[in-house]
C-alpha cells in the first residue's frame, strides 16, 4: 500500500472509509516536525496522529507555541515532516510528490490565515487577489465567467462588487478577513485550514465570520481544520476537538464528550480558563492550573490511547487505566470551581488580619516624625547615619523621613558650595 501511495500522481474521487462508515479526508500518521539542525534542532510537533472526516469541523486547540499552526502549514506542504506522513484521501501528500499531485493538493486544500493584513498583497486589487487562484489553475471558461465567479463570491462574503477595484489597506480587519475567505472559497476546495481566523478581529465581527464559515460548510460540504486557542469559540462550531500541548496531542474527542469528560489535566486547565459571562461568578472562579510535573514518564512511556467512546487521551499505561475508570463512572467532570461568596469574604478578612499583624510587628517608636526630616536637612551627615541605622532596625517610617531630609540637605549644600566657587572665581578674575 505504501508503494502505491508513493507513485500515485492523482487524487481519487473519494477517500478511504473507516469502520464507522465515514469518509476519511485527511490523516496524520506519527508526524514529527522539526526546526533547526543537530544541537539546535527543536521538535515542534511530536508523533501527531489523527483523522479528519469529510464534512466535519475538526478543531485543533492549544496555547501559543504549542504547534497548532505548524501542523496546519505542514498539511499545505509548507513545513516538511521530519517523520511520519500526511495522507489526503489515502494518498501521501507529505515529502516529495509528483507535480501533478502537488497542484491537485493546492487546488483542494486552501488556508485562511490569522492576520488578514499580512496575508493579502497590498499592491494588488481585491479583484486580482480573489482571481489569482483562478488564473493559476485556469478555473474559468472566459473573462465573463471569471468576473461572474469573483462577483458572486464577493457577494457571498458580504462585500460589494465595487469593492473589487480597491486595495486591502482601504478595508477594516473584518473586511480583509472576508477577502481572504473569498480568495480561499473561490477555488471550491474540499478542505479549508482556518488558522485562528477570528483572533485578530473585534468580538462583534467574530460571530459574522464564524457564521460565514458555517454557511459555506452547509452549502458546499466543506471540511474545516479549525485552529484556535480559545475553547469557548470552538465549542459551538466543532464536531471534534484535539488538544495539543507543546507538540503533543494530549486529547481528542467529540465536542460534547470533551467538555463533559476532560480527562487530561491540561484540557481541564483550558476549560477552566473560559471566561464566565457573569462578572460576579467570574470574580469567584478558581482556575485549574496544569502542572506537567505530575506526570512520571521515566519508566512508562506515554501514548495517545483510545479509552472508548471515540475518546483518545495521552498518558502512560497506569494513567490510561485511571482515565478509563473515571470515564466509565459516567459522571461529568467539573473543571470550573466557583468559590462561595462567604468563603471569599473569609479569605479577604484573613488577608486583612495578616496585614494588621504585619503592621503591629513594626517597632513602637517608628513614628515617622517630621522633626527627623528637619534635623536631617540641617545636618545631612547626621541624617545619613540615621537613615542607615533606621533601615537596619526596621524603623521604616523614620527611615523615610531621614532619607527625604538627607537628600534635600545634601542638595542645598551642593548648591551653596557651587555658588561659593562661582563667586570665588569671579573675584579672582
CATH class of the largest domain: Alpha Beta
Q: Average pLDDT across residues?
A: 87
How far the N terminus sits from the C terminus, by CA atoms, comes to 103 Å
What is the overall silhouette? Answer: extended
When the domains are counted, the total is: 2
Instruction: Label the CATH architecture of the largest domain.
Output: 3-Layer(aba) Sandwich
- Beta strand count: 14
Q: Going across the major beta sheet, what is the strand order?
A: 6-7-8-3-9-10-13-12
Radius of gyration: 32 Å
Characterization of this structure:
With 429 residues, the chain is an alpha/beta fold. The chain has two domains: 2-261, Rossmann fold, CATH 3.40.50; 365-428. It has helices at 2-7, 68-75, 99-108, 126-137, 143-156, 173-185, 203-220, 231-234, 255-260, 265-272, 279-283, 317-328, 341-360, 370-378, 380-392, 396-428; strands at 24-35, 42-53, 57-61, 83-88, 91-92, 109-112, 191-195, 223-228, 240-245, 248-254, 285-286, 303-306, 312-315, 337-338. It has an eight-stranded mixed β-sheet, sandwiched between helices. A four-stranded antiparallel β-sheet has the order 2-1-4-5. Helix 4 runs parallel beside helix 6 (173-185). Residues 1-6 and 355-360 have low confidence and may be disordered.
Amino acid at each position: 500500500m505504501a508503494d502505491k501511495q508513493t507513485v500515485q500522481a492523482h487524487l481519487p474521487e473519494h477517500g478511504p472509509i473507516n469502520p464507522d462508515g465515514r469518509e476519511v479526508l485527511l490523516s496524520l500518521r506519527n508526524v514529527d516536525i522539526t526546526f533547526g539542525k543537530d544541537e539546535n534542532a527543536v521538535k515542534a510537533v511530536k508523533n501527531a496522529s489523527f483523522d479528519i472526516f469529510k464534512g466535519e469541523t475538526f478543531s485543533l486547540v492549544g496555547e501559543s507555541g504549542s504547534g497548532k499552526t505548524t501542523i496546519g502549514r505542514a498539511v499545505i506542504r509548507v513545513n516538511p515532516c521530519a517523520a511520519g506522513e500526511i495522507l489526503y484521501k489515502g494518498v501521501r501528500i507529505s515529502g516529495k510528490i509528483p507535480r501533478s499531485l502537488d497542484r491537485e493538493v493546492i487546488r483542494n486544500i486552501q488556508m485562511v490565515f490569522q492576520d488578514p493584513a499580512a496575508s493579502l498583497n497590498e499592491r494588488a486589487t481585491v479583484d486580482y487577489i480573489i482571481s489569482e487562484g483562478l488564473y493559476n489553475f485556469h478555473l474559468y471558461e472566459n473573462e465573463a465567467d471569471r468576473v461572474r465567479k469573483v462577483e458572486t463570491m464577493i457577494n457571498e462574503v458580504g462585500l460589494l462588487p465595487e469593492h473589487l477595484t480597491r486595495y486591502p489597506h482601504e478595508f477594516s480587519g473584518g473586511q480583509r478577513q472576508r477577502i481572504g475567505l473569498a480568495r480561499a472559497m473561490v477555488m471550491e476546495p474540499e478542505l479549508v485550514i482556518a488558522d485562528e481566523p477570528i483572533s485578530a478581529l473585534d468580538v462583534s465581527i467574530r460571530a459574522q465570520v464564524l457564521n460565514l464559515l458555517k454557511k459555506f460548510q452547509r452549502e458546499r460540504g466543506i471540511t474545516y481544520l479549525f485552529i484556535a486557542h480559545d475553547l469557548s469559540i470552538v465549542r459551538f462550531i466543532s464536531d471534534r476537538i484535539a488538544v495539543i500541548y507543546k507538540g503533543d496531542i494530549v486529547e481528542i474527542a467529540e465536542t460534547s464528550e470533551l467538555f463533559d469528560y476532560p480527562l487530561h489535566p491540561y484540557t481541564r486547565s483550558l476549560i477552566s480558563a473560559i471566561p464566565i459571562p457573569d462578572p460576579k461568578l467570574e470574580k469567584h472562579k478558581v482556575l485549574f492550573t496544569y502542572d506537567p510535573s505530575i506526570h512520571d514518564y521515566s519508566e512508562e512511556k506515554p501514548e495517545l490511547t483510545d479509552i472508548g467512546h471515540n475518546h483518545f487521551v495521552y498518558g502512560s499505561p497506569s494513567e490510561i487505566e485511571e482515565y478509563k475508570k473515571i470515564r466509565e463512572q459516567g459522571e461529568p467532570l467539573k473543571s470550573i470551581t466557583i468559590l462561595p461568596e462567604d468563603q471569599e469574604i473569609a479569605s479577604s478578612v484573613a488577608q486583612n488580619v495578616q496585614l494588621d499583624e504585619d503592621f503591629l510587628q513594626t517597632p513602637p517608636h517608628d513614628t515617622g516624625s517630621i522633626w527627623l526630616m528637619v534635623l536631617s536637612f540641617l545636618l545631612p551627615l547626621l541624617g545619613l547615619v540615621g537613615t542607615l541605622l533606621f533601615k537596619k532596625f526596621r524603623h521604616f517610617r523614620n527611615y523615610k523621613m531621614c532619607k527625604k531630609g538627607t537628600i534635600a540637605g545634601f542638595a542645598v549644600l551642593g548648591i551653596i558650595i557651587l555658588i561659593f566657587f562661582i563667586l570665588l572665581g569671579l573675584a579672582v578674575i
